[in-house]
Amino acid sequence: MTKPSFSNIFMNLAADLALRSHCVKAQVGAVLVKDTRIISIGYNGPPSGTHNCDEVWPETGCPRDARGSCSLALHAEENAILYAVKNGSNLEGSTLYTTLSPCLPCARLIFSAGIKQVFYNHSYAEFKGLPNDEGVDFLNRFGVEAVRFRQEL
In whole angstroms, how far apart are CA 150 and each of 12, 13, 92, 117? Predict the structure, then answer.
């Protein structure tokens, strides 16, 4: 019997975590790992203890900001990084698996946290109708390998 690779396991976990999201518009999951060990997990949604968008605004989701993005939620990458930092984890040299490529603000946070590699399933630019993935471009420009994930056999 062939065992799944750790990369497949981590990306599958990110996809499962996305199902926990209360966002009406998009469900995104993220897993932070180092040396094949999970450091932290996250999914997109409002800060813990505030509200759940699908319960408060089930038809429309939460209010939008000037760019048409959610005005209240944290992205999956932000939640994973914040939880890790809150618990004293060292993120230097870690790898992030996420179901949607990082937006530019998340890319800056990923870079600043010392994460060295990012695997993503879907393109944020395609999802938002943008010409390119600014976050992926930023990460690759500054030495963080950010690539679209391909399931390993």
Answer: 12, 15, 24, 14
Residue 110 C-alpha from the chain's centroid? 10
**Residue 77 annotated in active site:** yes
- 23 annotated ligand-binding residue: no
Domain-embedded: residue 139: yes
Which pLDDT tens digit goes with each residue over 98-110?
999 999 999 999 9
- Is 62 among the annotated ligand-binding positions? no
pTM (two decimals): 0.91
Q: Which domain holds residue 23?
A: 6-46+66-148
> Is 51 annotated as ligand-binding?
no
- In this structure, is residue 143 part of a structural domain? yes
Catalytic residue among 77, 78, 92, 145: 77
